[in-house]
Amino acid sequence: MVLLVSTASATLGLALLTAANGPFNRAFAAQRGADAAVAVNSGRVTTAQLTATRRAAGVTAAAGPFSAATVTLSSKGVSLPSSLLVGRASPGGPLDDLTLVSGHWPQRPDQIVLSAGDGFFPGIGSRMTVTTAPGKPHLTVVGIANSITNTADAWVLPSEISALRPAKAPATAEMLYRFASASSNNQLRGDVAAISAALPAGAVGGFSSWLSARQQATGNSAILAPFVEAFALIGLFMSVLIVANVVTGAVVASYRRIGVLKSVGFSPAQVVSAYVARVGVPAVAGCVIGVAAGNLLAIPVLHKSAASFGVGSQSVPVWVNVVTPVAMCALVALTALGPALRAGRLSAVQAIALGHAPRQGRGYTMHRVASRLRLPRPVSIGLAAPFARPARTAGTLAAIMFGVTAVVFAVGLNTTLARAETGQNLAATAPVQVSLASANGWQPGTSRDRAIIAALRSQPGTLRYVAAAQTELSAGALARQVNAEVFDGNAAWLGFDLISGRWYSGPRQVVVNTAYLNQTGLTVGQSTTMSTGTRSVTARIVGQVFVPGNQPALLTSVQTLGGTSASLALDEYLVGLRPGVTPSSYVGALNHALGGGYYVSGPDGGQFYLIADSLIAMLTLMMAVVAGLGVLNTVLLGTRDRVHDLGVFKAVGMTPRQTIAMVLCWVVGPAVVAAVIAIPLGMVLRSATADAMARAAYTALPASFQAVYRPAEIVLLALSGLVIAGVGALLPASWAARARTATALRAE
Amino acid sequence: MDALIRVDDVSKRYDNNGPFAVEHVSLDIAAGEAVAIMGPSGSGKSTLLNLIAGLDRPTTGTVAVAGQRIDSLSETGLAKYRRQRVGMIFQFFNLLDDLTVADNVLLPAQLAGLSRASARRRADELLERLKISDHRQAYPARLSGGERQRVAIARALVNSPELLLADEPTGALDTATGEEIGRLLLELNQAGQSMIMVTHNPDLALRYAGRTIEIVDGRLAQDTAGAGARP
């Protein structure tokens, strides 16, 4: 069983390590991703002309044309931003092989499959309305699919597109291409230009590239990789330690048997090989079953991992299924070989005597000390027992330590991620956002703006609100544009997490993210000069804000950029709610008050954080279970080792309950020591992993993201060691309590 | 006279298709008796002793000690019965190697919840009486066979049991030491301790037991105290 559990854990660990390493590139190859998805005006080009572009210079593969339309979908009264709807007869194909995450492909005209990349997941079977199509038809969601390069927001049968296209909208289509050279944006632009030149003028619109999709997915995977790797390494170390400890103990426990083999004529070499084989046969069986179990365990974990990396699907690589059992069997052979060689060198009498004789001197002192403690005798005997078998105890301690480390690490990381998520989506302070359904901006003071403000003021749940505009600025020597979020009104209440400095308190003050500081070389307190295109503004950087990503970002007030003369179009209102008001009820009420044409959204859980959280929970549970099983195995070995002593205890009057208490106490001491080691270890691992994740996200972390452990929490985390140890030891303790006394006394 | 131990038509087999280790055995043992159970190897004498000690359960039949049915007790009940009413002595001593002589002797008293002071007084008294008080802090591995058996006897007596059960108490000892132990047991019986001893040594049985029961192939073959045997 030890090999089964440890091999399963190692398989999962290696699979995770592989999954975290370059997931996008491997998935892009596996799913035959398209280098470019090109929008085409169907009215200016024939299907034959588009098909002929497969033979254009530089094109290595093509798919399409797929009819397409830009629509607005709504579900339960909530409108989504404009969505690209593409007609495809099936998810497979020579390019852009879609992965069905759940459900099935449309089989009827009124069915739709949504893209997993959008993060909007109404349930399978829910109804969506195409609000921009004539008659506002309804479609039933029958599946969620993943395109590695997000070539569409949703798919329907090809015959449906014309009916779902907005009235008077031009007929469009999508062509997918692979090119001989597509490793840079310049190359892709050249490739698409060549296709455009081969088609009538005006046939080709824009295109989306695989490089953008990779950047987004790689960003996520780079952030996730450190914690996935940390869990994988914990699992691997735990597996190796448990196997080594248990196998060594099993061989040492069989010295008497080895002595008997020698006494009937086995040579030392025969003894060694017989013994390694004896341990090896069940080990091989355990490894084979363990690989299968590891693959089964990996299914839900890799499903989450794939979703978080945005790659549709991941599986356990073939080499992991081969290398893991081979490595585990090699480990068994190595750890069995040492004691087996030793036994082979002993005479038969010595081997039998070693198997029989009491172990001299170990644990005597602790037993004497324990006998003086004013504790029930089974408890004091149990507490002292681990000192008689220090190597076995070290194995138990290591299993518990890894389990507690995983728990401490996971709890702290979860808190850090929760704070990062809250900091990013402002769910705690501004859980509701209001914008236009058309995704266009609007000017302050216009009828639309007044309508939104009136609706906000009419809602009793409204606590406060602020208008926000997204714009791009040039800044200093930066080659790329800076994303700026500009607020018209008091925005301090939004509670952006600050890494250093403070929020701006007046005009000519800005807060920027870490990428901005790193790329400009500026620090908090220095001035920066920005250009809106029409005017140049110099402001002081008063704070560094937590906005992850390698895109420089800046937050400031409308006044800093010139007030109303800046002619900034507002993009949304951010709304804070009164205590006790739920976002879902507020969104429904505000939608009703505003009517059509507006998009009111509740807190966005953020697919990345949701999946990261469930991945952490799943992995932590698995690590704790593996640790508990490690404890179970070592305690089981211990009860088998001491079965005769257990018989003596029961013969002189130890009740079953006292036996259970004694065996449970075997692990109490190691659990306490394990917790003392594991808590700081888990904290350091969390800190290092959080820092690595932050670096991958091109940001530093606010101090509040690092101070995540409260004293009461630390005590509870320490107790998790006792829980893991107690749960692991309970089954062998029960078996020991139920063992027949007469049978136990006859055991040697 | 009311029997201290009443074994009533007891049979024991270890698997459903196997032979009986003990078959249809009935006997009464009075308080204060010293009884030797004899028989060839594999005759079932240790099995019978285990059934009386509550270390095992009969397949059929009943076992009562001091009026209490022990065959129907739970595991907890049997443990309490053993610690309160029975003292066990084994052929290979069955001492705990990690505990000192004193701690070995104290163990049944501690499991029974006796106060520390009472338990220590009782243990000291027994160690003195059995002439092993000099070894109280020693570990069993360092003692001779005779000394270990004395420790085992002290452990068996620490809770003042009604019944002392000894399974081949001299089987692992040399002749001289065996005789020492035999005399010790005789002294205990003469002081009123009820005792059942399993032995294959007829000389031991003759010298140190007042009654001999012979078991052959699991069945009661002979009982020298006719009044106490029931067919």
Describe this structure in words.
The complex is a heterodimer of chains A (748) and B (231). In chain A, strands 1, 2, 3, 4, 5, 6, 7, 8, 9, 10, 11 and 12 form a twelve-stranded mixed beta sheet that branches. Chain A starts with a helix and ends with a helix. Chain A is built from 22 helices and 22 strands. With 748 residues, chain A is an alpha+beta fold. Helices cover 52% and strands 18% of the residues of chain A. The longest helix of chain A has 43 residues, at 210-252. With 231 residues, chain B is α/β, with parallel strands linked by helices. Chain B has a single domain (3-228), classed as 3-Layer(aba) Sandwich (Rossmann fold). Helices cover 35% and strands 26% of the residues of chain B. In chain B, the strands form two sheets. Chain B has a six-stranded mixed beta sheet with strand order 6-7-8-3-9-10, sandwiched between helices. In chain B, strand 4 and strand 5 (68-69) form a beta hairpin. In chain B, helix 3 packs parallel to helix 5 (145-157). In chain B, 50% of the residues are buried. Classes of the chains: A alpha+beta (748), B alpha/beta (231). The A-B interface holds A 357-360, 363-364, 367-368, 371, 374, 377-378, 381, 384-385, 388, 644-645, 647-658, 737-738, 740-742, 745 and B 50, 53, 55-56, 75-76, 78-80, 82-84, 88, 90, 94-100, 103, 106-108, 110-112, 116, 139-141, 155, 159.
